[in-house]
Amino acid sequence: MNSFSTEPAVLVLEDGSRFPGYAYGARGVTLGEVVFATGMTGYQETLTDPSYAGQIVLQTAPHIGNTGMNAEDPESRRIWVAGYVVRDPSRIVSNWRADESLATSLERDGIVGISGIDTRAVTRHIRSAGSLRGGVFSGAAVDLAAEEQLRLVTEAPQMAGQNLSASVSVAAVEVTPATGERLGTLAVLDLGVKQATVDNLAARGFDVHVLPQDTTIDALLALDPVAVFYSNGPGDPAASEAHVELLRAVLAEKLPFFGICFGNQLLGRALGLGTYKLPFGHRGINQPVLDKQTGRVEITAHNHGFAVDAPLDGPFESPQGFGPVEVSHIGLNDNVVEGLRALDIPAFSVQYHPEAAAGPHDANYLFDRFRDMVASNLSKKDSNA
């Protein structure tokens, strides 16, 4: 597929804004929440991140596709974005690792995209108006009346209230053996897990059992896990009550727990805290976060549209009776809760991606912190046996 199609396409936002451009990837209609991602690299990891399911992703970096797509870097089994918006698609592929062009990958996976639009203008509009539903129309759909295109957009579901875990989770258990010194079995609830996360956990000595999102507490405990992990994923945490109840059962067993991104929001809700939708979310690989425990500022990779509502200063009691909890990490751009740590039970979480396959790697130490917490818990159990 030629990246420089002259076939017309249009991006339509729910407030009636229209941005004409050119067809890119598959042709047709796609609908979803329009979000912007600020990473200048790592578009393959972004596209294959299941957390982007249901979202039309706009890249703020103007030139996309120059390194093509390869078979080594995908974070999951397919491209998950609902649609793709770029300004200047690369004219050629210029990387020795590339297997095909980005445009070819988008077309094969049926991802409707648009190029040649002013992505800076769309980004500024979303930052002012907040997250908006949108649609990309190309092929025969570009000739639909503007009123009909807008009707389709406004009838699309809002992201708030959506439970998308079943659409991205594995159907059966998948096991990755430990590559480091073995600690034991780790139960990973797949809410949209990325391959880099699995690899990092296996490197810390876990036999990683990736479980379907509808796993029961009995099935989880039958694995005799040394710890439990909740992954990133798409959707509204308020619509995932079954995952929250499962996590409360895990915490009641005092199993060590680590959650990232969606897993952070679900830990918050399991502890009895609320969550809320951010105006336009955090998506990119350049978000500054303060680790309150060390005083260190990390540059981190984010992809979330919801956040936990919790007091930022000092410990507070879990409304669900799990003892004192504290906010462990804070986003320095807007003071959003970026991490939680329980003080009486072995559980913590962060709102960002410590695996960060496209970088940065400032937060990779969190996998070591998790391994150390699990090892300490096992030592205590052995000494009490």
TrEMBL record:
Residues holding L-glutamine: S51, G233, G235, F262, Q265, N303, G305, F306
Lineage top rank: taxon: Bacteria
Keywords: Amino-acid biosynthesis, Arginine biosynthesis, ATP-binding, Glutamine amidotransferase, Ligase, Nucleotide-binding, Pyrimidine biosynthesis
Family matches, as InterPro entries: Anth_synth/Amidotransfase (IPR050472), CarbamoylP_synth_ssu (IPR006274), CarbamoylP_synth_ssu_N (IPR002474), CarbP_synth_ssu_N_sf (IPR036480), Class_I_gatase-like (IPR029062), CPSase_GATase1 (IPR035686), GATASE (IPR017926)
Presence of keyword GTP-binding: no
Domain Carbamoyl-phosphate synthase small subunit N-terminal: 7-137
Pathway terms, separated by semicolons: Pyrimidine metabolism; UMP biosynthesis via de novo pathway; (S)-dihydroorotate from bicarbonate: step 1/3; Amino-acid biosynthesis; L-arginine biosynthesis; carbamoyl phosphate from bicarbonate: step 1/1
Catalytic activity: L-glutamine + H2O = L-glutamate + NH4(+); hydrogencarbonate + L-glutamine + 2 ATP + H2O = carbamoyl phosphate + L-glutamate + 2 ADP + phosphate + 2 H(+)
Residue numbers spanned by region CPSase: 1-182
Annotated catalytic residues: C261 (nucleophile), H353, E355
PROSITE patterns registered for this protein in UniProt: GATASE_TYPE_1 (PS51273)
SUPFAM superfamilies: Carbamoyl phosphate synthetase, small subunit N-terminal domain (SSF52021), Class I glutamine amidotransferase-like (SSF52317)
A family per Pfam: GATase
EC number: 6.3.5.5
EC class of the enzyme, as a word: ligase
Assigned protein family: Belongs to the CarA family.
NCBIfam families for this protein: CPSaseIIsmall (TIGR01368), PRK12838.1 (NF009475)
Assembly and interaction partners: Composed of two chains; the small (or glutamine) chain promotes the hydrolysis of glutamine to ammonia, which is used by the large (or ammonia) chain to synthesize carbamoyl phosphate. Tetramer of heterodimers (alpha,beta)4.
HAMAP family, per the entry: CPSase_S_chain
PANTHER family the record matches: CARBAMOYL-PHOSPHATE SYNTHASE SMALL CHAIN (PTHR43418:SF7), MULTIFUNCTIONAL TRYPTOPHAN BIOSYNTHESIS PROTEIN-RELATED (PTHR43418)
Function summary: Small subunit of the glutamine-dependent carbamoyl phosphate synthetase (CPSase). CPSase catalyzes the formation of carbamoyl phosphate from the ammonia moiety of glutamine, carbonate, and phosphate donated by ATP, constituting the first step of 2 biosynthetic pathways, one leading to arginine and/or urea and the other to pyrimidine nucleotides. The small subunit (glutamine amidotransferase) binds and cleaves glutamine to supply the large subunit with the substrate ammonia.
Protein name listed in UniProt: Carbamoyl phosphate synthase small chain
